[in-house]
Amino acid sequence: MDLKNKVIILTGAARIGLDVAQGLKSNGAKLAVTYFTSKPDLGDDVLYVQANLSKEADAKKVVAETKKKFGQIDGLVYMAANYPNQPWKTLTEKDWDSTMNTIAKSAFLMSKAAADEMVEGKIIHIADWSVLNQPYKDYLPYNVAKSAVIGLTKSLAKELAPKIAVNAIAPGPILKPANLSDEDNLEALKNTPLGKWGGAHEITKAVLYLLDTDFVTGQILYVDGGRSIA
């Protein structure tokens, strides 16, 4: 899909999402960007929609406002998520519901709302390299929610074929956390075959590839420096 003048909904334009947004714009896409609390600044040509995407009405509002402004929807890049540390001893039903709603339920609601208005198009979700094979301790709801996103991606690919392709990106060590100790940094690099942090633009390149290709659907693209095979 040539992105020039194509309309893409991007959920989440902070950190990695900011690089993705800039990559989409530089390739000629028209953007609708959602935010929950902090409105990004990507220029006056971008449509900004405040929304709680775990609410069906808000997901539909994003789609309706996008279609009203641009007249069409050609793609969805779903990046909104949280990453809460939730140890087993203090884990509650509220923690579970909050994380599942923010990650898995929201991805479904936004995908459903967008797909129902697409004639043809692409949907991209963000998964995680670790959740199926090496889930992190103390992140149980997150691990399950991101696993659900993988299942959602594959199921939607069947439901929406042949007009809409659905894929996911599973990032690995992309951005080095600001508070990461030298010891933990060395450990992360040791366990990553390519021996480095990828940087946000590696995710942008993956997004652009999945929007461009017309013969890939139902796939999970690992962008992890080989971490998943280490």
TrEMBL record:
Residues in coiled coil: none
Keyword Oxidoreductase: yes
Oxidoreductase among keywords: yes
UniProt-recorded Gene Ontology molecular function terms: oxidoreductase activity
Keywords: Oxidoreductase
Protein family: Belongs to the short-chain dehydrogenases/reductases (SDR) family.
Protein's name in the database: Short-chain dehydrogenase
